Amino acid sequence: MRNLLFQQTSPAHVRVSYQIQADPQTPFNGPSNDHLAESVFNTLKNLRGLVKEPKYRDARFSEAEIRQIEVK
Q: Superkingdom of this entry's organism (predicted)?
């Protein structure tokens, strides 16, 4: 299971936390673990590129919208 959590840290910045829940009995050096690490890296790298697009970079949200996505 994966969760992306967003928290506004200033008017122009948002902290993104990426949480993963995995089976602790999965072998540390197994192929699943390699895929998991690569998946996290690629997801955050792609998200970083996505938010630079004008459609998202220039987006503005109301206080109510920010409260809905904010981590408490």
A: Bacteria
